[in-house]
Write a structure and sequence with these properties.
The chain is an all-alpha fold. The protein has one domain. The chain is about 80% helix and about 0% strand. The protein has three helices and no strands. Helix 1 packs antiparallel against helix 2 and helix 2 runs antiparallel to helix 3. The longest helix is centred in the C-terminal third of the chain and has 25 residues.
């Protein structure tokens, strides 16, 4: 089960990255940000379960930065009051 979560998490990061590199997906799109956040959160969870400190640092930071990117995107989309 952990391997399945790891592969799913990796795919959720790699697919939008490839889309971005091929010019098919903007890094400022909601789907890009959500896929990165969910993928990184999956990999962070696996790293915590497996007690892999380097990957906890890497994926934890990736998760936090994805959360910041998503928050900034949503904040920019909010109509002015």
């Amino acid at each position: 089960m952990i391997q399945l979560i790891s592969v799913a998490g990796a795919l959720l990061i790699l697919i939008p990255f490839a889309g971005s590199q091929l010019g098919r997906l903007s890094t400022q799109s909601l789907i890009y940000q959500l896929m990165n956040l969910i993928g990184a959160a999956c990999l962070t969870t696996v790293a915590v379960i497996e007690i892999q400190y380097g990957f906890i640092l890497l994926e934890g930071t990736w998760t936090l930065m994805s959360l910041v990117g998503l928050w900034q995107l949503l904040r920019r989309r909010k109509p002015a009051a």
